[in-house]
Amino acid sequence: xxxxxxxxxxxxxLDALAERYHLHPLHIEDCRHRNQRAKVEDGEGYLFVVLKPxxxxxxxxxxITDFDLFLGRDYLITVQEGECPSLRxxxxxxxxxxxxxxxxxxxxxxxxAAVDAYAPVLDWYNExxxxxxxxxxxxxxxxxxxxxxxxxxxxxxxxxxxxxxxDVASHLQREETDLIQRDLVPFLRDVYDxxxxxxxxxEMHRDLLAGAMDIYLxxxxxxxxxxxxxxxxxxxxxxxxxxxxGFYGMNTKDLPWIxxxxxxxxxxxxxxxxxxxxxxxxxxFDWF
Amino acid sequence: xxxxxxxxxxxxxLDALAERYHLHPLHIEDCRHRNQRAKVEDGEGYLFVVLKPxxxxxxxxxxITDFDLFLGRDYLITVQEGECPSLRxxxxxxxxxxxxxxxxxxxxxxxxAAVDAYAPVLDWYNExxxxxxxxxxxxxxxxxxxxxxxxxxxxxxxxxxxxxxxDVASHLQREETDLIQRDLVPFLRDVYDxxxxxxxxxEMHRDLLAGAMDIYLxxxxxxxxxxxxxxxxxxxxxxxxxxxxGFYGMNTKDLPWIxxxxxxxxxxxxxxxxxxxxxxxxxxFDWF
Amino acid sequence: xxxxxxxxxxxxxLDALAERYHLHPLHIEDCRHRNQRAKVEDGEGYLFVVLKPxxxxxxxxxxITDFDLFLGRDYLITVQEGECPSLRxxxxxxxxxxxxxxxxxxxxxxxxAAVDAYAPVLDWYNExxxxxxxxxxxxxxxxxxxxxxxxxxxxxxxxxxxxxxxDVASHLQREETDLIQRDLVPFLRDVYDxxxxxxxxxEMHRDLLAGAMDIYLxxxxxxxxxxxxxxxxxxxxxxxxxxxxGFYGMNTKDLPWIxxxxxxxxxxxxxxxxxxxxxxxxxxFDWF
Amino acid sequence: xxxxxxxxxxxxxLDALAERYHLHPLHIEDCRHRNQRAKVEDGEGYLFVVLKPxxxxxxxxxxITDFDLFLGRDYLITVQEGECPSLRxxxxxxxxxxxxxxxxxxxxxxxxAAVDAYAPVLDWYNExxxxxxxxxxxxxxxxxxxxxxxxxxxxxxxxxxxxxxxDVASHLQREETDLIQRDLVPFLRDVYDxxxxxxxxxEMHRDLLAGAMDIYLxxxxxxxxxxxxxxxxxxxxxxxxxxxxGFYGMNTKDLPWIxxxxxxxxxxxxxxxxxxxxxxxxxxFDWF
Amino acid sequence: xxxxxxxxxxxxxLDALAERYHLHPLHIEDCRHRNQRAKVEDGEGYLFVVLKPxxxxxxxxxxITDFDLFLGRDYLITVQEGECPSLRxxxxxxxxxxxxxxxxxxxxxxxxAAVDAYAPVLDWYNExxxxxxxxxxxxxxxxxxxxxxxxxxxxxxxxxxxxxxxDVASHLQREETDLIQRDLVPFLRDVYDxxxxxxxxxEMHRDLLAGAMDIYLxxxxxxxxxxxxxxxxxxxxxxxxxxxxGFYGMNTKDLPWIxxxxxxxxxxxxxxxxxxxxxxxxxxFDWF
Lengths: 288, 288, 288, 288, 288
Hints:
The structure is a homopentamer of 288-residue chains.
Chain A: E1 2-6, H1 12-21, H2 25-32, E2 39-42, E3 47-51, E4 54-56, E5 62-64, E6 66-71, E7 75-81, H3 85-94, H4 103-116, H5 118-138, H6 142-174, H7 185-248, H8 263-284
Parallel strand pairs in A: 1-7
Antiparallel strand pairs in A: 2-3, 3-6, 4-5, 6-7
Helix pairs in contact in A: 3-4, 4-7, 5-6, 5-7, 6-7, 7-8
């Protein structure tokens, strides 16, 4: 068997292969325009599959690329659009075993490698969400919202491509074609299981993120509540003193005890007592 | 083949064509009342399709028009209701190739053009949402909510017509009719893929808008929180001074140190110390 | 053909007709108890349909009535339960054409009239929602929430009956019965299209109402925010003056510059300067 | 025919009947463990049905019981687990007509009675929600939330059992068994209709409760908003007076007009004028 | 029959069994990598089932393990991955009855035991939610949110595995295989019923948790509202006193009644009267 492993979809070799194997022009076009949906299509004498491998790039962003396969009776063409490092590493290892494999076996191994490449992405999200949860409880800040939003955006996209990938896996497993031999079916079912689990994990991540956002919002309300309490406690402490000292600050003539040498002590005691009384009331209503 | 490209649905030519090709009166009526749903219907000897092209008009609003097709064995009738500039440009270009095309090929090309016309609309929404996201984080204002709401309204409508268009594409791809030859099936599948991707994009846009609204709301809460803090800090700074100066403003006779020439300094120091103490406490609880 | 157009379901004529045409007792019972679901049921030799026409009554409330049809080979019985003015007007017009119509044609026309009667209801909701949106942005008040809630309640009910009506239309279009001739199928499909569009419109209205509620809530938060700002600005202006005048109100002997004839001007300048300084800081943080 | 109407599922008679009619041990076990799901199961020569009648008990709580039926060719066994008063009353009435009924007719009447027993439950919820809505608008209090939550809890449970009951009704209507004669089908369809309407009503109730919660929350925000306004208005009235009187309370020597006999009037006028001015500004911004 | 009850999936005995019974390498791999989805797969001459038993561990956390079964014609292999105490106890009891059972009977009993093991988990959640509800109403604190979130996380996971378990049960019940004899079908349907009820219970728990979160949030808003009221009442009591005493504290000469010996009483009365008046107004607006 022959494996044509093209790393650039604009390579003229693709045109040569298209002619040699009678590949449909629309499929060639699909290879050259990124942002296809993951899909399986029957060509004449071959099967055309678009995969959507994903990885987290150096800037900490989700990057989704396209990876196309043409499975023929005695050949396999793979076209890489965009670089997914973890998939590339796995594919490079497969070159060693090409001679001993059938095309459909190699085809399965590459799809399996693409699906395996989702695992580090999911782990990365797992960690990012754990981090967010800690942050949201300990020190919620406006940029946390931005972070939650960015993660959510990534998960929305990831969910979209994984759902399509699951359709692809389900399709392949049930495909009635003589290009894929029967002994591969359990393996394709295994791929389906992997993708289905990945979809479930993404769903769970989304639920957790929504929960983190809820915690954030409730913690902002809580903090406002705390601030209000502090303000009120301050007011409680100060107001009696202000009222009483204002009273004794009046320039009227008949202030009670004003002539007594203990007037200040009386006033100060009044201040302390009323403040203590108010604080006791607040305490009783569970404010501290 | 003959292509009747009517630009006005109230043109009397449509009546003539209806008679000549035995078009069903309900289909003619559909052409003349806008706001149909996108759909495919079998007529006697022809296929009737309603498309819903969309564009963003000069006022920056989503405008949805109707575009009807009758595909017969040797003719194609297109009826435009309302002006969609990007679709019109594409259709005008097709006139050059009419002679060499089969009716079903032209039919596909027009549907493809209508679907292509969604791309600039989606791009416009993409940009509008990016803009909103920046605004919501930097300078949230009440009119941002209005904007979010307007965009949401547009996306709701867009989603509705795209879902129907997806049904149309899916229907056409599976239609068992001899009006469409088999070699067009991969092309119709391609159209389906395009619309399906557009639906997914709109869904994602809606999720992003909902996220932007969440950020807006959380940023309003945050700002209230900030305002409260400032108010409390101000109170914290002022209250001890007010209490102490009130105390020394009393007209009682036994104020402590009142006769001392350093009483003011003592009082002022007390003010500064208590204020500093309170600020230190707030600092400790992470308020700055 | 004979059309029995009963306007009162408790009319004894219904019993006579039931006996004459062998109508099932359960169907007669359905006619006499309002609040049925819209449905199609096969009787022996006839088709029983319950429609749910709706209108907005004078009090501005959604009113839903029942309208029952029995379609036989050579007769049509319609039973009105409750008054729907717009449907009644349309039905009265049909009496003129009874003689020339087949029973199934009349049957279609009545169903079409019932579906047409939804249009003014939807328009009414459209206007009501537009009004709410304006109000919510300009002058949100607690009674707006009540209004939103009332409209929502109506839309929930409307959605419920329209969904059932859509099932009825879909059922009729696919019904394998010789009571309805084949040439009516495109017309019944048209009815289905109308109802389906009405359902979509109601869904959109619900989304818009939810959006209006969001705007309302965000505008209340915003106003609280505004009030807090005003309060804080007031505090900012007053507090320095209070602190400084309190300081100079103390009865201590060593107040700085107290003997100077310009002490007041010094104090007043201090007040103005600190207040201006604080306002400048708030300005810098975008509070005005 | 024989009707065995057991009122205690632990009655040893059930064991005797199980042996006599060869009832499956799992079905007998189901009768003796409450909290089954509503379901229909085929036994050998009989049909086993679990119903879930519901009522509101004296404490004003939803109580759900189990009621099991075995329909054989010439017998009917009913097993009551837990007391549902309204169902029991209806069943007791049926004893009079046993002799003249076929087993399947009695079977239908009992199911119909169980479904009828939901009506007072739904009415109770209807009233409870109306009450909540009034309360939430007039005098929202924290215990309203608790009440909303309790009602919601009940509706969640009710929805769950009604959905299962709907499946049972739909199953019975389509069941291909010679135990139920064809003439009962319209009646079973009628039962299905009843349950389906009940499900729709519960859904509507849930929507209404969610709306009531929204109103509650928005009215709490509104009240906070009101409180803030009062606080700010109070501040507005008091602050100018405090600042001005503080100014004239200073012990400095060069206070303006301090020697004039009209200084107090000047100061008081200043207080009134600034306060009035501030109130006018607030008025302009729609605060009253 | 032979039952191989392996308690360690890395036991080399598993390899021996795999060779002896021709078990598929992928199935052996599945046994050795935890975190599979619950599933049923057909092998050659055997049925492979992955169960997901769950329990609450000592730290009060949900722990989900894997449990694999291979059902052959005359053998049963069970492989335990991770320890689920309640399941283990049930399985150990089954060893006594191995000799008298058919493989499929034992197979059913083990699945039944795994499903029974969910009951204490659901009870634990039930209690935890009841506790949270009480807490949220009596003494809402930020750690309550954390607790709600943790419970929600567990329920999300539990729901995920139960949904898959339900698919497994539904699959087994309909499986067309001669490995399971017909008399087991009612028992497998019973298992399905159990899992379906468990799924419904988890759904209800999620709804209740969401409700608890709503109560929490509304109670935080309520408390803020209360704090604001206290602050405003304090202000109401203090402000008139401050304004009046400030007025009489002015050093101007023409203060009204300043020379009267009853000026203080006049001022004090004014303070009391205005404060009482304001409190009366607040009372009227339902603030206490």
